[in-house]
Amino acid sequence: MVKHTATSVVTIERFIIEQERNFPQATGQLSGILQDIALAGKLITNKVRRAGLVDILGALESENVQGEIQQKLDVFANETIVKAMDHGGRLCAMASEEEPEIIPIPDQFKCGNYVLCFDPLDGSSNIDVNVPVGTIFSVMRKITRGVHGELEDVLQPGRRQVAAGYIIYGSSTMMVYTTGHGVHGFTLDPSIGEFLLSHPDIKIPRRGRYLSVNDSYEQYWDEPVKALMRRYRGLDGQQKAMNVRYVGSLVADFHRNLLGGGVFAYPANTQSPRGKLRMLYECNPLAFIVQQAGGAATDGINDILDVIPTELHQRSPLFIGSADDIETAKDMLAKRVA
Ligand code: AHG
Ligand code: MN
Ligand code: MN
Question: Spelled out in words, what is the top-level CATH class assigned to the domain 12-199?
Fold first, then answer.
């Protein structure tokens, strides 16, 4: 296996191909999917970077399936990904946070063996105030027998993912992904338009520095969640206080905690009894990445990767991050079911 350090100049395309060579049975389909996503990320970056310059901000009239106002860039990002991915002959269907049903591959294109689930623009309500946003994706193998993908192909537990990643449009643009062989990060060099390997084999510290949670919902949390947050803040005297950092863009909060160690929590509350974040587009892909980096993710009862989704837009509570901190969450939240 070729070992790269952060000082070797390696493009994402070359890295993907080198990784594929380690698996002689690989057909190249998955590599093609990752390369197409990287391309979509570059196109979306371009638009996001100019968001403040052109008259593109503000909400469209339409509401998306989650009942939230869509931003124009959400629509652009969604269309860009669909158009970058639908003709490659590698996918049999897609599912997007922004679309009510699964997205079929148009008849004129060949169908492949994989499904792609994605959140085209995560944190989009932050665009107007110039806060980082991101794209999150998850790839699974098709399990049904027909040529076209079906809902069943998409509703698989996260443990069956073969690749997952995100692109963060922050102070620089980065793509971070895993195919189940570690987590690797690439930074876009805008002058040459290439993602270059900058963070090989990312590992999340076992214990974290940061706590990311929106505690304006505290009054709606149950007692075990309140006690857990007190623990993380060092208020019950059991551990050192974590630093609270909350951007409000899941990708940005997750990325910081992945590198620095920490927990992102979006618990269920009485206002949103199933939490807010979506299983297929947010929880599953980030759970696969964090697991590959040595961390963990739970919904408070089950490992996120074990949950079998039953609905396309299913929501889930999420506690994700450093292994020891998630162990604390599991212990303290188990008191609810005991
Ligand atoms: P999206 O923009 O894709 O709808 O996701 C928004 C999500 C996520 O990015 C963030 O962590 C969370 O919403 C913030 O929610 P609160 O404002 O309720 O804290
Ligand atoms: Mn999102
Ligand atoms: Mn979104």
Answer: alpha beta
